[in-house]
Amino acid sequence: MRIFVCLIAFFAFSWGGVDSYGRLVEIKDAKRIVFIGEGALRAGIYLGLEDKIVAIQKIDIATNAPYSEFIRSSESLKNVKLLEYDGYFVNKDEFSELKADLLVVANADKDRLDRFERVLNIPVLGVKFDYKNPIKSFKDAVWIIANATNSQDRANEFLENVSSLEFELSSYKVSGKKFYIGGLEYFGSRGILASSENYAPFELLGIKNEADFTHALNQISFSAGTLLRIDPDIIFIDENAKQSYKKDLDESERILNLLSAIKEKQVYFVPNYINYGINIENCFIGAYEIAYHTGINLDLQAKKKQIYKIFYGKDFK
Fold this sequence. Notes:
Blueprint: H1 2-11, E1 14-18, E2 24-28, E3 33-36, H2 40-46, E4 53-57, H3 66-73, E5 81-83, H4 92-98, E6 102-106, H5 110-120, E7 124-127, H6 134-148, H7 152-171, E8 179-182, E9 194-196, H8 200-205, E10 219-221, H9 224-230, E11 234-238, H10 242-251, H11 260-263, E12 267-270, H12 280-293, H13 300-312
Parallel strand pairs: 3-4, 3-6, 4-5, 6-7, 8-11, 11-12
Antiparallel strand pairs: 1-2, 9-10
């Protein structure tokens, strides 16, 4: 009996390392994991950890996004506890009932993570998604979670496939025209005039957003007149801003209708990509759709199917 116990102890997984915030975290064979904060659960699902997840946020099953569909269809996640999380507080009693041995939190500050660890008395792993470099920060977060949960094999396979998508997109010759992205969300949809200097689907293709961000932090709403002076050849709009776009056209006193892209019917809607890196699969799908609308010959449905297979291990309609 003593030999058996020793063998179990010897083969038990443990990890000590730093999270995205430089905090030292020590984990012993986490088998009951909770993911909270925007983007955290997605990373766990990309790594195939659903059998270890014991609670999720209510918001994670409430959207039309593929990851919510995946959660609703997963046998492993059908009966997990649904949590409320406002970004600032965790419920100690709820976590005691869950008997969780690891909490993964996205986009919280170091002090908050330390407080969660003190209150819950379990390891708390912090990861962050950086809007200025979303793909790199996404990969870094996946690796940190993989190392902490002994999921390195899946991470290797997954990130190699992601890198192959990056390489393919970078090989496309998309140039010679002026491009603009509008309709980006910033605490809600802002219509065609809401844009951003950092837009990862453009960056994957090596193209520039033709807008002046000289005096902007990152996200900005332009006037219709400013956009007319830019006069892009092709305009892409986040699909969640369709209604806002129609309203913009009605309320701009026809100024927007003078845009070359609108007159030439070169306005296209692209998948909703939250511009701080938490739904990276849509970033890649959007990049391929942008490439297609600029003249690259692609089977978009086949490409979308491939991307979902890489990220979720299954197909979606």
